[in-house]
Amino acid sequence: MKCWITLLLTQQAFTAIPETVDFNNHVQPILSEYCYQCHGPDSSTRAPTSAPLRLDREEFAFEVRDGRPVIIKGVPEKSELIKRITTKDEDDIMPPPDGHKPPLNPEQIALLSKWIEQGAPYEEHWAFLKPTRPVVPKKKWGYNTIDAFISEKHEEFNLKPNEPEEPHRLIRRISFDLTGLPPTPEQVKNFQEAGSMDLGTAVQLATSELLGTDAYAENFSRHWLDAARYADTHGIHIDNYRSIWPYRDWVIQSFRKNQSFKDFTIEQISGDLLPNPSLDQIVATGFNRCLPTTGEGGAIDEEYLAIYAKDQVETTSAIWLGLTTGCAACHDHKFDPISQKDFYALTAFFRNSTMPAMDRNKADHPPTTFVPLQEDRKAWDALKGPIEAKKNEISARRKAAHPDHDTWLASLNPTDVKSLAEHPDLALPLDVVNEKLNLGTREIDFNKPTVTSDTGAAPQLHDINLELGDLASFDAQDQVTFGGYLRLGEKSRGSIISRMNTGNDFRGWDLWLEGSRIGSHIIDAWPTKAIKAMTKKELPLNKWLHIMVTYDGKSEAKKSLTVYLDGTSIPIDYSHTGNVNSTISTAPLRLGGRHPDSPLSGNTAFHDFQFYQRVLTATEVEQVAKKSDITHLLSLAVEERLPKQREAIYSYFLSQIDPVSKQLKTAESELLNNQSTIRKKGSLTLVMEEKNEAAFAHILDRGEYSLKKEKVDAAIPELFQGDAASAPQSRKELAEWLVSEENPLTARVTVNRIWYYFFGRGLVETTENFGIMGARPTHPELLDWLAVEFMESGWDLQHIIKLITASASYQQSGKVTSNHREKDPTNLYLARHPRHRLEAEQIRDLALSASALLSHKIGGPSVKPYQPGGVWEAVAMNQSDTRYYKQGSGDDLYRRSLYTFWKRTAPNPAMEILNAPSREVFCVRRDRTNTPLQAFVTLNDPQFVEAARNLAILALGASDSFDHRLDFITQLLLSRSLENDEREIVKTTLRNVSGEYKAAPEKAAELIAVGESPTPDSLDPQALASWTILASQILNLDETLTK
Amino acid sequence: MDNILDFNAAVSRRQFFRRNGTGLGAAALASLLPSAASGLSNRKVPEHLQKLAPKAKRVIYLSMLGAPSQLDTFDHKPKLQERFAEDLTAYLEDQGQRLTGMTSGQAKKPLAPSIFKFKQHGQSGAWLSDLLPHTAKMADDLAIVKSMYTEAINHEPANQLCYTGSQQNGKPSIGSWLSYGLGSTNEDLPSFVVLHAQHTGQGGVQAISSRLWGPGFLEGRHAGVALRSKGDPVLYLKDAPGIDRKIRRQMLDGLNALNQKSYDAVGSPETQTRMQQFEMAFRMQASVPELTDLSQETEKTYEMYGPQAKTPGSFASSCLLARRMMERGVQFVQIFHRGWDQHGNLPTHIKDQCKDIDQPAWALIQDLKQRGMLDDTLVIWGGEFGRTVYCQGGLTRENYGRDHHPRCFTMWMAGGGIKGGQTYGETDDFSFNITKNPVHIRDLHATMLHQLGLDHKHLTFQYQGLDQKLTGVQPAKVIKDLII
To answer: From A378, A394, A910, B217, which residue has the greatest number of CB atoms within 10 Å?
Structure first.
């Protein structure tokens, strides 16, 4: 369609060069397209290099060069600019022929000439000037101010606006635009009745009613989630699940209560930085955590931190400012006055986050916060006090228990402390007093640096890589326990002790250190046939820790490992849960690194290795941890005990002997259990957290993360910096500036996006780009009027929405007349309502709603409705936790589409085919294509076939008459009854297909079995199959799919 | 009158290359112009778009995801045998090449010569290892480029650069650019089709994302259509159980009649387009199964493609399917074959992988040739980067692994006006740096577009205020030595 506009405009331009040539509307589009590449804002490519010429700003364009400026006001024929664009000389002509720009056409040349003739006046780019409330033209048509502006253009282009839309079509349009769902037949009837008295009032009532529904909040949330690039997976590489749906639910709640766009903005961008932020305000910051991240092995942190900051700046810029600031990542912006420095100053706002670059393929990529279910919030908060109190009591008792402890100790004969019941199958004390290491069957030289622990001497693994022999071997199906005492001097990476053959796909096992997390590999062939789990939390440094790992080869991979810290199991994350068939390794048991080439660094000390050929119970592990310690300690003479050792004995007394402490502990764990029950129902969600330092970034040469140049502080682009003292320096101040009246863009960009939701095209078509290369507004005064209205209403979205639905421009019919076709084929000026296909989610929700399958549940974890097999599997990595699509059941199949699980590398195919974006980058304007693949979805996707069948069941149950049944279906799908000639067509289809199903009843049985919802036995299968085809026919009508 | 039509077509064509928003592909444009004016190839187009005469009409891109080792396949380095296990740590530091996090911490970087035997083949004397005996037989058809390079060192960004021209998200894939630039030549089939071939090697399987065949900022209809080997070849293609062709036709007849009434009443052109799309869908329900039904292929053909040819979803069967699509006017077929990321146990895994692809790739070229289609069908084979000369993990005489290496790797091209029988570019003794004739990924893109009659500088789409190109903003060049 675009082509037609171009043809039209070109032809118009030929006949009519405007009286007064306007810089913003006529001149700048030409200069920016043909000249700014080399004579614009980007200083690095400005030409000629000897004496760069800059045409985008008035202060440079008239500089004297070779005796005179290139533009001589009033004298086009003497201006070098006109000479250069009209010459035939190949060396002189602009744009140069070796670029890929064609020469200017005659009307463009005429425009520039006339502009110079008129004195070559420059203007600031329209969108960078603050909007002011324009004079409202006298209303010639319609109901409200919007119509006054719209009808002015009608007059200008000789357009005749349409009559009001038929009421049933109008209420359907309002319902879809506001709620994304069709109106119920009752709503249609009520609206028609009210409308017959006073259509305007009926529209207002319907608008108010629908704005107060959850469905409205869900529909507008969906728009916002496109912009925020919300998804349920990390997006890059392994593309694992990400826990962030509480953010989605926050967005829904925000729309539900019509939060002002100002607060909506501030909370999402900087909720964490508000004074005493509420849980909701922190959850809101998930906005900046919706970006795709990676955990790819080998990826470089700095590179990705630069990529993330760019994404965050681009997203923020597009949504609030309508600017393509990302273009300035490698060089100054080619068209808009945004320098490379401006861009990196913007990235600084986002680079001050504590988020690690690598998501480690974990759902809870930090920072996160826990969000209880709405109904658990009170109980959750109520638990905090008692838990705190109990902890205080415990610590008070700890201070007060010394007399009881001393009494106990005095009464104790060290031999009373029984040695452990369980004997390890292998115990290597690794004490190195004799510089000989006792391996049971042999001794080896062991002259290594040592440290002294509370429980004896221990080797430093730094620089050790020691073969210990054919010990501690086990196979995939075995059950084992292993561990010992460990002290981490600093973060490090490598194996502490292992039996692993690095030359044979790493077959074997290890006790593995990564940073200060500990865990284990159980490997058949890395990485596909392997199990790996690491502790969630980082372990403390410079402290002796008792670590035990149990491996249960009889349990499923994702439950096979348990890690105990000081006798208590602690949470672990599995990164690999492959199928392990054998772990028998020819490599020896090895201390310090699993290969001579990969030693463990970092002052890690380890001793008292124990290995059991069985899985110890939690109690046993606790006993091992505590008792092996305590027996040793108690065996020491009292005067030999170090302070730390005395402390350890005291702790043992409190936890194992002292009845008061034990009782307090029991009470505490009951409370903690309650807390954990709530925790299991709720979810973690990704949030923002600021580093404790001022925000800064480096300019990156050519956008390369490794080429750091000048350091810049966080700042908004110079263009917008008024008073330097009040310029934003933190994320919070950035947020406040975005929605301040100082900012010329946010209000315009936001009302434009709302306009786009209703009319399918913004007043500025490029909803994401209000810069110099963006589209010009079709109705600049209307845009500014709405922007001012929006700000003055307190940034109230619903205020703008009500103005739109109350306008005649919105309420007019969509009929295309010959006047429209001739004067405004693409409907830029709205002399008819634009007719558009419904969006992906609306189409599916329509089918679910009309067939009464739709679930009305709000929020919660994303769900997995019908999806053809193999869509995820074809693209996912073997170790991805979103490799296999496990379809849900029951309600999960029928939730509104905004709750469908969104895997970024393979979104739900039906939604994707219907132009839902992949959510890999922000999207503020969806494609709207019309393809055969879309026909396949609405014809054959089981979701739609099932909906048609259910609709048929309801129709057959509603009446015995053909006409009533048909009305039942079309009222739900089209909000109307069919005309007589239409009924005849449907009747013919019914006659034909009934004949087919009568001849082949087995086919009827097949068709009505599609979908998981039940089919009542009472219905005649052939009738039901035939009516299913009819319902599907109506469901697939252009009118059904269109609003 | 003719002049005006010419002018309109020319302006439109220019606009279609330059304008933003809902720019029109050639086919859609042709359908909008009066019928006498359609058929753009005969039309007078602006001079700057006229320069190139296409040598190729269609492309098959065999994408080896994960990055095959050039050192074990094409880039023969006999001198390395004597330097087994030599530590390259100092050399690498000297080179300043950034290493992935997987080997940057490895204490030693021992040199790992290939254990595979290399021989010269064909009149051109191209070196190939014994992993690729069939490919070797067609050495004289191939232009083997040993001097490919990229900047990316990890799979995701490297694949994106390879298949969308940019390391960053959101850019259109090669096939989408071609669909946008060339339009479609078959009304019943999509112009850009993607196949996912099964792989045998289990050494390293990389993720793949639909962004590699996505339309980026181009219209959604330019997206690659992934044909599946299990279930419906095109998603939702098959009618629901219990709906046969006759019932579907009856239903669509009624649907059309109802839509026609709606069009008569409201007059929206979108309604007409929708009617056409439902009809095309109906035709595709016949044309796609016909395409994917390989039962009419002869035993001789199956033999040529090898033992896997009858296994749906195999690389062999995918190649055969690709040939059928070429015959039916599909313009760009991309076959993704994963599993080449061999950080460890490379000798075992690469054997499996080469076995998957060697004979089918050879057969594809022979098949195209015997049908007279090789001359105007461009076939490209390769991965997203190369692999290191030093060993990742433990090195033995029989076993080694290799990390990612961006500075040089090997690809080959054949047919479509490519000058076969040559090995282009050279690398140093370590297959580390290119010593002659470097070819960047974007040069490959420029060359491919050139063969299709498109100038990479002119195939643009305005987005975010910039004339976006497949080859991006850095200069790209057509490699003249590679083409006839």
So the answer is: A910
Q: Which of B104, B184, B255, B392 to mutate to test the interface with A (most CBs of A within 10 A)?
A: B255
Q: What share of chain B is helix, strand, coil (3-state, %, to 5)?
A: 40, 15, 45
Taking CA–CA distances from A905, the nearest residue in chain B reads B209
Instruction: Tell me the three state secondary structure of residue A98.
Output: coil
Of A506, A927, A1033, the CB nearest to B255: A1033
The whole-number pLDDT of residue B337 equals 95
- Report pLDDT digits (tens) over A876-905: 888 899 999 999 999 999 999 999 999 998
Per domain, the residue ranges of chain A are: 2-123, 218-371+690-751, 423-615, 942-1041
Alpha-carbon distance of B370 to B304, in angstroms, equals: 12
Q: Are strands A517-525 and A529-535 parallel, antiparallel or unpaired?
A: antiparallel
Token pair 């009568």: residue: A998
- Residue A456 has a pLDDT of 61
The answer, yes or no, to whether residue B212 has pLDDT greater than 60, is yes
Choose the closest CB to B207 out of A6, A775, A876: A876
Read off φ and ψ for residue A777, nearest 5 degrees.
Answer: -65, 140
Peptide bond into A182 cis (omega under 30): no
- 8 Å CB contact of B29 and A933: no
User: Which among A56, A62, A58, A60 has a CA at the least distance from the CA of A40?
Assistant: A56
Token pair listed for A772: 């110099």
> Please, which residues have CB within 8 angstroms of residue B390's CB and are 6 or more apart in sequence?
B88, B92, B103, B109, B110, B111, B112, B402, B403
Say yes or no to pLDDT of A638 above 80.
no
3-state secondary structure of A292: coil
Take residue B196 and report the two structure tokens written for it: 């996912």
Residue of A nearest to B47 (CA): A102
Residue B143 confidence (pLDDT) above 50: yes
Question: What one-letter code names the amino acid at B387?
Answer: R
B253-301 per-position pLDDT tens digit: 999 999 999 999 988 888 988 998 899 899 999 999 999 999 989 999 9
B396: closest chain A residue by CA: A503
Q: Exposed, middle or buried, A730 (CB in 10 Å: 0-12/13-18/19+)?
A: middle
- Whether B6 and chain A come into contact, CB under 8 Å, resolves to no
For residues A470-479, give the mean pLDDT.
Answer: 88
State the average pLDDT over residues A965-989: 97
Alpha helices in A653-744 (DSSP H): 659-681, 731-738
CATH of domain B58-79+112-230+312-482: 3.40.720.10
Q: Can you tell me the ipTM of this complex?
A: 0.76
Q: How many angstroms separate the CA of residue A10 from the nearest CA in chain B? A: 9
Domain at A423-615: CATH architecture = Sandwich (2.60)
pTM for the model stands at 0.75
**Residues 78-137 (B) with a CB less than 8 A from some CB of A:** 98, 100-102, 105-108
Q: Are A874 and B195 in contact (CB under 8 A)?
A: no
Residue keyed to tokens 């309604």: B271
Shortest alpha-carbon distance between residue A932 and chain B (Å): 5
- Tell me how far apart the alpha carbons of residues A305 and A298 are, in angstroms, rounded to a whole number: 14
pLDDT at position A839 over 50: yes
Contact at CB, A939 and B211, closer than 8 angstroms: no
A358 CB neighbour count, 10 Å cutoff: 18
Which tokens belong to A235? 């997006």
Give the H or E element holding residue B410: strand B409-414
Q: Are A997 and B241 in contact (CB under 8 A)?
A: no
pLDDT of residue B33: 31
Q: Do B211 and A506 touch (CB under 8 A)?
A: no
Helix (H) or strand (E) holding A455: none
CB pairs under 8 A between A and B: 305
- Of A771, A967, A783, the C-alpha closest to A56 is A771
